[in-house]
Amino acid sequence: MSVLVVNAGSSSVKYALVDPHGDGPATVLAHGVVERVGSGAATLRHVVDGDSHEGAVAAADHTQALVAVADAFAAHGPDVRADLQAVGHRVVHGGESFSGPVVVDEAVLAEVERLSVLAPLHNPVNVAGIRAAQERFGDVPHVAVFDTAFHADLPDVARTYAVPRRWREEHGVRRYGFHGTSHAYVSRTAAAWLTRERGVDPAASRVVVLHLGNGASACAVLGGRSIDTSMGLTPLAGLVMGTRSGDVDPALAGHLHRVADLTGDVVEEQLNRASGLLGLTGESDLRDVRRLARAGDAAAAGALELYAYRIRSFVGAYAVALGGLDAVVLTAGVGEHDVDMRASVLDGLEVLGVRLDVDRNGAVTPAGPPVQPVSRDDSAVAALVVPTDEEGEIARQAVELLTG
User: Fold this and answer.
1) In this predicted model, what pLDDT tens digit does every residue of 181-204 receive, in sequence order?
2) Quick check: is 147 catalytic?
3) Among 103, 191, 271, 367, which residue has the fewest nearby CB atoms (within 10 Å)?
């Protein structure tokens, strides 16, 4: 039994064929990516059994990209049609319309397209990817899984912006949150560890998940339910990210229009693509920022401090919202791999009961178990590294929807 997971971007199609058995990480049967779709110089990398097969492909659009994906399976295996149960699609914004996975039909696609006003850079290409996959893999159900769904029932105090009612009611202005598939998998995995290792009731577990990658968000999870999260109406809000600013004064756009004659569209584009670590240091990758800091670059050193400070600020706020903490969990590219940033974040949380174990932090490895503690045994609050499994979570939700 397998699910083909498709994540369509503006100029790429990432995919993975997975077996989502059980509650742990899914088994990845093959994965790959088609890059530079529409450029005339598209390439495909298909990985199966540790072997990578790369080459140029004809992919003028997403439909041709999915044809290339199917051809890669046919040429290099495994047989994608042998036990294919469904195709699962990552869709960024479900608005207030979708609070869980749905089987895709024309009405669903029309609503996802309508919601493009909330995610103009993402939803249109998500729809294009779904339509392309339906053309190539039309004999199995297609399921849309939404980044916003895990946060769909945020409490009113967390979801509501203090803005005019008309904005809220007519234009859907509220906090939605993102990275939902990651937060769902990681928080559930951490809660199971807390039950097994510390006897914590899963229905009352208090976990803060830190999804730290080029995009980054924090999420407060109480008994498996998201009760607050750092991203908002869009993925721009909250933590400092690779190219996104995170939280800024809402008056910034008006100020820059008055003093620099910048339009709202220009300000929004710059906050999304030219800010964050890139705006602070000229580099968007935390590894490059750390390299600059080690070479004596004061701006880079300050950026690292700001990055960690903003994360700790959210953890502190969420500890209050949760009424205490059982665990702080780090995941995604930075959370899973950056030893120094984990230490910078967790060292500052001792006031909340987190006691970092330096040796354990340095021993975290991608080949390790699904949950790797980096706190001391006597730490009142556990600090855990849990590698995220977004593809597995999308596949799991698709199977659960289809099988009841």
Assistant:
1) 999 999 999 999 999 999 999 999
2) yes
3) 367
